[in-house]
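Re: export button greyed out
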Amino acid sequence: MNSKLASRSIIVITLLFLIGPFGIIILAGLSAGDFMTFPPDGISLKWYAKVFEVKSFRASFALSMFLAIGGTIAALLLGIPAAYAISRYKIPFAETIKTIVAAPIIVPGIIVGLALLRYLVVPLNFTVTIALFLAHTALVLPYAVRVVSSSLNNLRSDMEEAAVLLGCSRVGAFIRVVLPNIRSGVLAAFILGFVTSFNQVPVSLFLSGPGVRTLPIDMLSYMEMTYDPSVAALSALLAFLSVAIVFIAEKFLGFSRYV
Amino acid sequence: MSNSILSLKKLNLAYNKTVVVPDLDLDVREGELIALLGPSGCGKTTTMRAIAGLMAPHSGTIHIDGKDVTRMPANKRGIGLVFQSYALFPHLNAFENVAFGLRLKKLAETEIKSKVEHGLQTVGLAHLATRKPAEMSGGQQQRLSLARSLVMEPKILLLDEPLSNLDARLRLDMRTELQRVQRETGVTMVFVTHDQSEALALADRIVLMKDGLIEQIGTPSELYNRPRTKFAADFFGFENIFKISGNALVGDAGSLQVSYQVDAEYLAWRPSAVTVGNGSYNGKIVGVAFAGEHIEYVLETLLGQITASSPAAERKFKVGETIKFDLPLASGFALYP
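Workaround output, generated via the alternate export path:
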């Protein structure tokens, strides 16, 4: 009886820690006052409305969406063939390639950002947008390769041979037989990549330029200037967006199998 | 040979530097049911993959229907393969699995529909057309895989261990099924197996392989009744095989002087060919097993252990008894290396 009570309270406390900040942010954004406070200073929706009026938020949201969607698609276009090659063919240095591909998540983001700034943007004169795009693609690539690899490993290769014997070319067999069967893995990789890219701060911090900022960076600098509850309101909206994405993914794909 | 649908000449198959099949010649006649039989690692599966075009031979040629297909890609050869694992497409239902190859041929939808329905009917799966492979039993999956290959009307149908993943009862069903399909469609079938009873029951001709070489080719009764080598005899149930040198038989434990001399490397006896109860030698019974129509004895002799059997109606011996036995030349079988 006592241990049951103990385990229950541990669960409740854990959930409070996880969900509590979320509640605080939602409520802080509902404040009627001019400063971010908790408990909120009266109740109003004006800060939620203001989020949509701030120009820089709109621009940085658009950039973040572009990077998250575009970067993840680029990473998948590179990652799916890479994962296929690693899992199907005995290519030399396969383990080394896997390690190199995983490097962007092992090396701290700050270092990746600084390195990209110093060796990509400055000497090659890349624009900030291109540098951001390349950086986000590289950051998402490890997830694309890992998740797609694991669903490829669950797929027997004789299925492709069967398709070839029924008249498919090798590429045709990949499109008709392999892709449909790793579809949920690809979608899971997409969602994971999207979230990783969208929430990315340290790398983007180094690669922001005048007028070109991702949403998290923009929120940081907005808060340095103005301490009003609109950032809290925006955070709450983004959190709802993430919950919605994960909910849809779980419902349609059984997302949790892949993570 | 003009009437051979499949002809392998001097085929050399290797993975990297490891030669699996050094030099293979084989002719298969149209409409035949051929078994490639041998223990694992004998090169039978490799040979099958080479016929299908899934691996390129190092040297030698493969002719199908008189045409050289050695360098032809697998998807152009018109060969069907039923994989040991079935290799069905999990994202497609039974109908679409069977229709897969027909759709690639860009046939008209009505033609596809009638061919698929006929194919599913042939293997008795017409009522399961909308099921996904995961919702079917092992036997049904196997029949689906067979139908998928058959609707393509292949010149040759290859089957990899077609019965090994099925339980005993389904195995019998599938065996009958394969023979019926073969009779109805007249398709040439080459199947790979490590189980001699499967090969004996199903094949018109058996190709017995060992270490990438053909040990013996013949009808089931030829291989069963007249094995040429020790390996073949071993494979087809001769349990007592002894080397013969001068007029002595040599076994694991020692030798036994006999009254005859033969110009052969080995002499072999099936358990039923060993005389028990009388003869010139003594053996101690160490095992007795009742097997329905006959009784099996294990005898401890100067040669080592001998397996013998006698009709159940005859006098029974008990474990521990020392009895007379004989290995008569007349019922023995001469083998060559």
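Chain A touches chain B through 17 residues (CB under 8 Å). The button fix ships in the next patch.
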